[in-house]
Specification:
single chain; 158 residues; 5-stranded mixed β-sheet; 3-stranded antiparallel β-sheet; binds ligand 6U4; binds sodium ion
Length: 158
Amino acid sequence: MVLKKVYTLVFLRNEKKILLGLKKRGFGINKWNGFGGKVEQDESVIEAAIREMKEECCVTVKKDDLKSVGQLDFTFEGDPVMMDVRVFSGVVYYGTPSETDEMAPKWFTYDNIPFDDMWPDDRLWFPYMLNNKLFYGKFHYKDLDTISNYDIRELKSM
Ligand code: 6U4
Ligand code: NA
Ligand code: NA
């Protein structure tokens, strides 16, 4: 039996920039990433995505303004739990991205994305997201810094 935990990951974007947050604690600490976290038992994936945006960078997003753009499965050597990450992209939001205990938000131009300080998988699937292609990616990590194998493909629909 495969154990699986579902996570959200949200990227706010405009024509010139993408919003990332520097994670200040926990899993992925000191890495830049989108905003998100575990889907809890009493909520849908989209509800979790909206809640985590608010908790992590104080921004309100509405359900209809978030677009499902990809799915990522991560496994780690010696860990039976698969991370199933649902990736969303949005343009419209309310409020000003602000620093919280968990994340320090910052806008990056598309030619200046800090891949060296992100999860190693990001540079492999960001091109799909940035070119508005739906994607599925599967990554097996040997340790937290090293991908031992992966597969990414474009999807026709989510
Ligand atoms: P708690 O336990 O409440 O602090 P929670 O906020 O629920 O945690 P967290 O922050 O651990 O969850 O969630 C991990 C976040 O990191 C999710 O948004 C998914 C994302 N993530 C995990 N592995 C990733 C990877 N290899 N590449 C990537 N994002 C990843 O781009
Ligand atoms: Na989180
Ligand atoms: Na959480």
